[in-house]
Design brief:
2 copies of one chain form a homodimer. With 752 residues, chain A is of the alpha+beta class. Chain A has 18 helices and 27 strands. In chain A, helix 6 (145-162) runs parallel beside helix 9 and helix 12 crosses helix 13 (301-315). The model of chain A is unreliable at 14-25 (pLDDT under 50). At the A-B interface, strand 12 and strand 14 of A face strand 12 and strand 14 of B.
Amino acid sequence: MISLNTKGRSLLSVFVLLLSLQITGQDHPGLILTKTGVENIKQHLGAIPIFDKTLAEFKKEVDAEISSGIHVPIPKDMAGGYTHDRHKKNWSILYKSGVLYQLLNDTKYAKYVLDVLKEYAKMYPTLPRHPQERSYARGKIFWQCLNDANWLVYVSQAYDCVYNYISKKDRTYLEKNLFIPYANFLSEETPQFFNRIHNHSTWGNVAVGMIGLAINNDELVDRALYGLKTTSLEPDMKDNDGGFIISEDQKSGFLANLDSPFSPDGYYTEGPYYQRYAMYPFMIFAQALQNKKPDLDIFKYKDGVLIKAVYALLNLTDTQGEFFPLNDAQKGMSYFSKELVSAVDIAYHFGSKDKQLLSIAEKQNRVQLDETGLSIALGIKNKKSIEFQKKSLELKDGADGREGGVGILRSENSQLELIMKYSAQGLSHGHYDKLSFSYYNKGEEVVQDYGLARFVNIEQKNGGGYLKENKTWAKQSIAHNTIIQDQTSHFGGKYEIGSKHHSEKFIFEIENPNFKIVSATEENAYPNTKLHRTMIMIEDEDFENPLLIDIFKVSSNTEHQYDLPYYYRGQIIDTNFNYDISPSLKPLGTKNGYQHLWLQGKGTINDPTKTIQNTWLLANTFYTLSTLSHANDEFLFTRIGANDPNFNLRRDPAFILRKTKAKDNVFISTIEAHGSYNAVTEIAKHSSSSIQEIRKLKIDDDNYVACTIILKNGKQHTFILCTSNNTKSAKHSIKIDAKTLQWTGPYYYFKN
Amino acid sequence: MISLNTKGRSLLSVFVLLLSLQITGQDHPGLILTKTGVENIKQHLGAIPIFDKTLAEFKKEVDAEISSGIHVPIPKDMAGGYTHDRHKKNWSILYKSGVLYQLLNDTKYAKYVLDVLKEYAKMYPTLPRHPQERSYARGKIFWQCLNDANWLVYVSQAYDCVYNYISKKDRTYLEKNLFIPYANFLSEETPQFFNRIHNHSTWGNVAVGMIGLAINNDELVDRALYGLKTTSLEPDMKDNDGGFIISEDQKSGFLANLDSPFSPDGYYTEGPYYQRYAMYPFMIFAQALQNKKPDLDIFKYKDGVLIKAVYALLNLTDTQGEFFPLNDAQKGMSYFSKELVSAVDIAYHFGSKDKQLLSIAEKQNRVQLDETGLSIALGIKNKKSIEFQKKSLELKDGADGREGGVGILRSENSQLELIMKYSAQGLSHGHYDKLSFSYYNKGEEVVQDYGLARFVNIEQKNGGGYLKENKTWAKQSIAHNTIIQDQTSHFGGKYEIGSKHHSEKFIFEIENPNFKIVSATEENAYPNTKLHRTMIMIEDEDFENPLLIDIFKVSSNTEHQYDLPYYYRGQIIDTNFNYDISPSLKPLGTKNGYQHLWLQGKGTINDPTKTIQNTWLLANTFYTLSTLSHANDEFLFTRIGANDPNFNLRRDPAFILRKTKAKDNVFISTIEAHGSYNAVTEIAKHSSSSIQEIRKLKIDDDNYVACTIILKNGKQHTFILCTSNNTKSAKHSIKIDAKTLQWTGPYYYFKN
């Protein structure tokens, strides 16, 4: 037996205390689940339906997986292939298994996590970079580091959950052979992936940060928050999507990725599809930081931008909950995704306990299995839920909110929704579509944005990755509902130029429920050319549904051709002008996306002015595009699909308004939603437009655009816009037809 | 005062009795609503939810209409125009108002009916035939007699309901100025409309019969039942659709229209869309006859064909309740139509009170407001409803069931449904598509039938009538999923020839739930050519979903080109063969429908044999068409839309298998439904085919076709068909690869 003096004894007790802390692990779980959280949840289990249901689903899935054995194959396949899908599944099952261990106290779940992790730890040190060489940042487990980072974000949580179950020896083994090398690989060894302003880096930062918090390694946490201090990256390095690796101000890390791609309104510059994808690491790491480093007060960072971002995302969905597909975006993604389940739960729990979020969670019908999900489940159980009210709103873009934005106009009395884009480029996932718009009715796309050209995770389509048509078609201006000059994309389709510029908001006013307006300008898309689009949603007894007015002014010092497409969806019912159809179809052009459009037919306007109209039917509602045209204007009927050898593109139609030679000009159009068709009763109601004519009013001042919409019932709606001054207090006085009109503010609207 | 003797007194009392009968109207209502029926209903009102709901809807609609005043404009417009729609609305509101008067005892409804009828009676004698001259049988109120007949069918019911409210004088006035001339106009004055075997005539017959029953005019009732005795019709007269006016056996009237277009199975030769349309007059007149002339025992007529017809119709719907669009048929029409509400209610009440019908009524969520609806409402209220089980079944065509038919194969464990057509021509609404098929999954069309080329009641599209593309495209063989020889439609697209022939069932067996088969032959579509198609649905553990095998044998004495289209719906995901895409699109041909197809791309097979495969994605499920091809076979990618100046056609795609020169040949193909895609989780499962190869087995006997489907898992499924003998007891013995196979019956299937 060893004898100790007092000092020795007290040192020993400190040592024992430390040891016991380490062994009993006072701080595990502490990342997402917490010790008190677990106790709290256990008290309610069985009496919180939405939570209990999610837990039962986890259990069923994990039990089936555990009984199928352990599968840790040597990495080999692209997305969609076996090893890829298996490792993806592993991260999910490990995470769920960890949660089940905590909530159900069944050590089989902890043992499973440990056994699988040991297999990874055995394999990891032997792995070179992944054999598939397509990524600018190849991973080890997956073909790209992005997926390796995904793995670690989830597995860190699993490890935290079973930490106390694992012996110190095994922990040391796992951390030394797997977690720390893994974190270093994602960061120091792959700086082009880790040190960017980009959703990829956010995943990388959070992966490193989560494992850092899980194993109490402050160096890793710091690296996650602030990025690598030094790297050997070249300033003009680009990723697979053509985006720059190095940001302008050279900041990096988690906080820099909150500073910069997020605007103060919570809009993420890449667009909602990627914002959704990035929301999980942003929110889950914020939750972990709040639990482990509460002093950082992360949810207050940048005036609470993370919680704002959740509201921005929810407002960026149509009435079915699907995201507006701005920039690269696969259609169908919605707030039913698991990232939004987490985001809504976390925003509710750490935010203001907004009862509107409960209604979204009810629709999602599952929760995150932690204290945030418990909060939601209790809120719903106690019937606190109220309907989420989507708003007409503007979301500014840019780190400081000064780089344009997107404007959403929503109708009060119908389900019509307009979204107009006048944002910055949106990093490497941005499309060249300044001042474009899309239009929805009851969640149906009436005038659509194409989205991306990709079938995510469908192996036969280029391994599930981006298709070449994403660049040749989906990103090009002609693929969007905006102006194209001389058949060339905005900024020449060049990211280097596009990423230097952004559009400018001119007007955004939604205070009057019957007259909402969004107006924006773009001066850099084409040299010496100013684009100015104004869209107005009028709700008036003269119209069955809100009328959309679209005024697109172009000003240039030389003559150009201008195309303005409307990618309508549906079946053409009627037109009021003559056109020829093409006896054989040829592509509309040879490049910039035009090579992908078939020209189906063309009308040339002979009258000096004529209001041309086109009515179509979609999902039992009629729509009419009316547009004021002039002699020699052309109206093209196109369809996507030319030069598409692998049938990668949808065969969707468009109307294209074309002015063949114009310096200063303005496109004035309206879109009506009217009437209905019922295939069961076979009753067609109000299948024709209410509009008789669109008339442009003559004003001897280029700073104004004025038009009157003349209805078949004789009523007239007049709108005048001052395009040079958006000051609200400015007074205007102009003469129209010998009558002087006076008003204050950038526009004037009246009805007679 | 007048003094009478005994005889005089008793004569007087008879007279008074008769008078009182007439005045108190013992037999009104008696047509659809009956006196006892009304009493019965009133006892339950307020306690029969589905009935109460329908009644409330009637009341709301009618009250609004009554307060809007009376509108009986001079007829002027085509379908979709004001006067057309107004008179249509009038018949509906009159009918409903009559019912409301009976059930609610409020005389305002009776008064409204009377007031409106008086307006009609004032106008009717002044009316010439309708000014629109498009119909072969112009009406007076509407552009075609068909709509005039619709009006009278409903208004007869209204008149019966308010009969006792109206003074004798007014009744005499109405009958003399409106109803009797109206009935004579529809029959004697328009025999080409009244005296046919056609849904138009059924409406005409029933209109005349209903008013006959309502005013106790047996002459009209007889005319309705048995047709006009003599007419001045020419034997080769045709209607607007190209159908003959005079039937072969020259029978006419309601009963003749039950004899002939209906098969003993209740299949109506025009197809389900028109059967649905005709069901209302058939069923409502049957109900009236049962009430007023019970001795006729109409529901027993032709072994109960009317009730059988309701079941046939319900079985001719997909899982969403929409009718399979055989022949001229507008998609979207379903058992939610008002005709099917009546049909289901009447079939339940006058049939065997089948509880399965209650489940359809529950989905319809409304009832006919009479005793049949009461029966339904009580059945539902008493929770007697059980789910309607749609069956795999054959519906024979032809008055005696000997003119082919349609075969429906439904999967046991999924929602896959195949319908194959081998019926007669289907009168003037028939399409030239012998042995065609369509294929459904969960109510989605996977391989579609085009349906008709028409936008019913949408005025801008040819007044809502048939478009010329119905003839140039929709009726042509190339518009369907069947064989086309030398780019010519079946029967040369000639109704005179097509209507003389029908296909023949060869096999229809559905007893084995894992192996269902339909096989049929057609020997008259092309001269000296026999077509024989066999389709098999196999449910086996080797396949995620049932596998569809499609064997199409063609035999001719000379060489021809054969095209076999598959109008798939969805996005092409992958192909396993080389093809060229067309740099510019040209029509595939110049006539017979080919002029409407764009050729998007073409592959020519170089290998001696090759199993070519095409995978597509539709509504989150993958599908693969595999087909055994030979050297010089072609595979065409087409899309509808060429030579369509008014954009009347949908831009739908097809794969076309082409054998450029063949005498005897066989197309052997399979269609798999496999895997899934989820746009929210972005997970793709099982996106590739399970089939490795389709192999044709060599047999030295032209009477047999044999093939083996070789799966990627090594399993083999072999099917042998004897094409010359469908006798179940026939014994067969053939040699394949030196192995002798022996079996009984027309086919042999095994797996190894």
